[in-house]
TrEMBL record:
InterPro entries: PsdUridine_synth_cat_dom_sf, PsdUridine_synth_TruD, TruD_catalytic. It comes from Paramoeba aestuarina. GO terms for cellular component: nucleus. One of its GO terms (molecular function) is RNA binding. The lineage of its organism: Eukaryota, Amoebozoa, Discosea, Flabellinia, Dactylopodida. GO terms for biological process: pseudouridine synthesis. This is Uncharacterized protein. Transmembrane segments: none annotated.
Length: 263
C-alpha cells in the first residue's frame, strides 16, 4: 500500500465513490515485481530445493532481504528444501514468524495475479463474503470483529450480487479454499510432504502443515484464514488534537473506519 494518495483519490474517498476509488488504486499499483515472481513462487511451493529457493530469493528482490521470510527460505536453500530441518534451526516463536511472513509473500503474489488477470469484476469461482449468513463474533484485544462466512460463486447470476470489496483469497498454511478456475498452476502442488489437497464444493484446500511441523509451531494459531483483496472504507470522521505543550496548535486527524474486518 502507498503511504499517501492522490488528490483525486482523496476526493473519491470523501465523496463516497468507493468503486471509482478501488479502480484508481488498482491502476496505480506497481505489481509487476510480484507478477514476475509468481512462477518462482509456484516452483518453490511444488518442491523447495536449493535451485528453486535461489530463484525465488532473486525474484523477490532486495525488499525481501533480511525479513523473517527471507531467513526461512534461505534456510530451506541451505538444507536443499528440507522443511523440517529448516524449522528445527529456529525457535518455535521464530518458526511461527517466518512462516507468517512467507505466506504473506505468497498471498500478495496470488492477489496481484488475480487483479491483473480479472480486474475489479467478480467472476465464477471467486470466494466472497456471504453477508446474508449469521455473523459470528471474534474478540481480539478487547475489540470485537465480525466473523463472516465465505462462499464460492458458482453462477454468473451470483456475480452481479457481489463487488470487488467482497472478494477474498485464502492465506497459505490454512485450510482455506482456492478455486482452480483462477490458479491452475496451484493444482501441481500435491506432494505429500508439503500439500494435502481434498475436494470440497468444487474447490481445493490449501496446505495443512504435517503433524511434525504443527508440533514445531506449538499451539500458536493462524487466526486469519481469508483476507479481502480490497476493503471498502465507510466513514471518515475528524478528531481535533490539541498539543498539551502549545494549546494554540490544533491538528485535525482523520479516522478511517472499514466496513468490516474479515478474520
Amino acid at each position: 500500500c502507498r503511504a499517501t494518495i492522490s488528490s483525486d483519490q482523496g476526493k473519491n474517498l470523501l465523496g463516497g465513490k468507493w468503486m471509482k476509488f478501488a479502480i484508481g488504486e488498482l491502476a496505480s499499483w506497481d505489481i509487476e515485481g510480484v507478477i514476475r515472481a509468481y512462477p518462482e513462487i509456484t516452483d518453490f511451493a511444488r518442491r523447495a530445493t536449493s535451485h528453486t529457493t535461489k530463484k525465488l530469493l532473486t525474484a523477490l528482490g532486495d525488499s525481501f532481504t533480511g525479513s523473517s521470510g527471507h531467513k526461512f527460505i534461505t534456510s530451506l536453500k541451505e538444507t536443499n528444501g528440507n522443511i523440517i530441518q529448516s524449522l528445527n534451526s529456529f525457535s518455535s516463536a521464530c518458526c511461527h514468524r517466518h512462516i507468517l511472513h512467507t505466506r504473506r509473500v505468497i498471498w500478495n503474489a496470488m492477489t496481484s495475479v488475480r487483479l491483473q488477470k480479472y480486474g475489479p469484476q467478480v467472476h465464477v469461482g471467486d470466494m466472497v463474503v456471504e453477508r446474508s449468513m449469521p455473523v459470528d463474533v471474534y474478540l481480539h484485544d478487547r475489540t470485537t470483529f465480525p466473523r463472516f462466512m465465505v462462499k464460492t460463486i458458482t453462477s454468473s447470476e451470483e456475480c452481479s450480487k457481489y463487488r470487488i470489496f467482497d472478494v477474498v483469497l485464502p492465506l497459505p498454511f490454512n485450510d482455506g479454499e482456492v478455486h482452480e478456475y483462477h490458479f491452475p498452476d496451484l493444482n501441481g502442488l500435491t506432494l505429500d510432504d508439503y500439500l494435502d489437497f481434498s475436494e470440497k464444493f468444487g474447490a481445493k484446500y490449501f496446505w495443512d502443515p504435517p503433524p511434525v511441523v504443527r508440533g514445531l509451531l506449538g499451539a500458536r494459531p493462524f487466526e486469519l484464514e481469508y483476507r479481502c483483496i480490497m476493503v471498502k472504507p465507510i466513514d471518515i470522521s475528524h478528531i481535533v488534537h490539541v498539543d498539551p505543550i502549545d494549546p494554540d496548535v490544533h491538528v485535525n486527524e482523520r479516522v478511517l473506519e472499514n466496513e468490516y474486518t474479515l478474520r
